[in-house]
Write a structure and sequence with these properties.
The protein is an alpha/beta fold. It has 13 helices and twelve strands. It has a seven-stranded mixed β-sheet with strand order 2-8-7-6-5-3-4, with helices on both faces. Helix 6 links the parallel strand 3 and strand 4. It is globular and about 60 Å long. The chain binds pyridoxal-5'-phosphate (PLP). The site of pyridoxal-5'-phosphate (PLP) has 13 residues, from helix 5. The site of pyridoxal-5'-phosphate has 13 residues, from helix 5.
Length: 399
């Protein structure tokens, strides 16, 4: 035992807290920040958040809420006004027909996931999780006592997930399947047909599907789709949404769930014993975001597509670098296996050396369940992409 683990053991912390690890993305971002604090000019490609400012009309709504003294407790799962705005926006965009009692707001999409997992997953339950996966899914499942059953996907097939692949992993303990399209970290987008098949397959067996749709508005295929529109299967579905990426509101902390009313009631009960309502003024801002013009979303999406194409072009020009074209979100997930072997053995080592020698911060793939990739967020300026690409090119040439 190291002195630190000995000290932790002496504190007799709960068994639960040892089941999980700090988010891998946050660990690397903190390392990059430390370097920056010491005066190093770091190109930071780790951040999973829009580089845009929150649109003006959303900020104005929050300011008006403060000035209007909308600063007290609200209903735990959000105001009626907010719940109605959530279901209306979703209905208009995806043709779903959720009712107010099938919606709730929480302190970010991550909080929605945490609530949902605590409410649905029991000790020993199995949760099917496609790989690569967003870092927090695994820990949130573990904290609820569940066991993740990893579903490997094929990079050459664009990390596709199908009902047949899911079927191979189902046992009598399977409680839930996680879908995340567009995906963090791969940017892969499931076709509406594949998503429908997985949901139908699960519903017929009484298995829950939790669909994390935090990037649903950053889908570049031209076929935007939410499983929430599959009305016939809705009694086994939890849709997780977030305003973080859609409206450049990561720091505001606003996410929502769409799910059967008893699930929402259970999640609200849990939330009533933890955070209570999401911040009142943020709720007003969220209503402005959901009910106001959606032009800002389209503008940001158009810029992400340009940035994606720019970084893909830059990566393609680096000998040995391979990268599947992502169809959504704002990440590329290049395969760096041709640089591993001699001096660098893993993506973690690659990312560490890239950070300390070339001052480019990326997230190693191990945190997402794969051992040949790093994740790059292209939610930054084109200039920053170019600076990083030049350093990356020189770094790999020196290996
Ligand atoms: C797939 C996915 N789900 C959920 C979240 C949580 O976002 P937030 O809690 O900011 O809504 C993120 C954030 O990076 C994410 O990538």
């Amino acid at each position: 035992m190291t002195p630190v683990t000995e000290a932790v053991a002496a504190l007799k912390l709960s068994e639960r807290i040892h089941r999980i690890e700090p988010s891998a993305t946050m660990v690397v971002a903190a390392e990059a920040e430390k370097l920056r604090q010491s005066g190093v000019d770091v190109v930071d490609w780790t951040v999973g958040e829009p580089h845009f400012s929150t649109p003006r009309h959303i900020k104005d709504a929050a300011i008006a809420a403060i000035n209007g003294n909308f600063t007290r407790y609200t209903a735990v799962g959000g105001t009626i006004e907010l719940k109605d705005a959530i279901v209306q926006r979703h209905g208009e965009d995806f043709g779903s027909g959720y009712k107010r009692e099938e919606a709730m707001a929480s302190v970010g999409g991550k909080h929605v996931l945490f609530n949902a997992m605590q409410v649905l997953v029991d000790h020993g339950d199995e949760v099917i999780l496609p790989v690569p996966y967003w870092v927090s899914f695994k820990d949130i499942v573990c904290y609820a006592g569940g066991r993740c059953v990893m579903l490997p996907t094929d990079e050459s097939e664009g990390f596709k997930v199908t009902a047949q692949m899911v079927a191979r992993l189902v046992t009598e303990r399977t409680k839930l399947i996680i879908l995340n399209s567009p995906s963090n970290p791969s940017g892969a987008v499931m076709s509406p047909e594949d998503m429908t098949e997985v949901v139908r397959f699960a519903a017929e067996r009484g298995i829950w599907v939790l669909s994390d749709e935090c990037y649903v508005y950053l889908n570049y295929t031209g076929r935007e789709f939410s499983v929430g529109s599959l009305n016939e299967y809705r009694d086994r579905l939890v849709v997780v949404g977030s305003l973080s990426k859609t409206y450049a509101m990561t720091g505001w902390r606003m996410g929502y769930a769409l799910a059967p009313a008893p699930v929402i009631a259970a999640m609200q009960k849990l939330q009533s014993q933890s955070t209570s309502n999401p911040t009142s003024i943020v709720q007003k801002a969220a209503v402005a975001a959901l009910e106001g013009s959606q032009a800002c979303v389209a503008e940001m999406r158009a810029e992400y597509i340009q940035l994606r194409d720019h970084i893909l072009e830059g990566l393609a020009a680096i000998p040995g670098m391979k990268c599947t074209k992502p169809e959504g979100a704002f990440y590329v997930y290049p395969n760096i296996s041709s640089f591993l072997g001699r001096s660098l053995k893993s993506p973690a080592e690659f990312a560490r050396h890239l950070l300390h020698q070339a001052h480019v911060a990326t997230v190693p793939g191990e945190g997402f369940g794969t051992d040949e990739h790093v994740r790059i967020s292209y939610a930054t300026s084109q200039k920053e992409l170019d600076r990083g690409l030049e350093r990356l090119r020189d770094f790999v040439a020196s290996l």
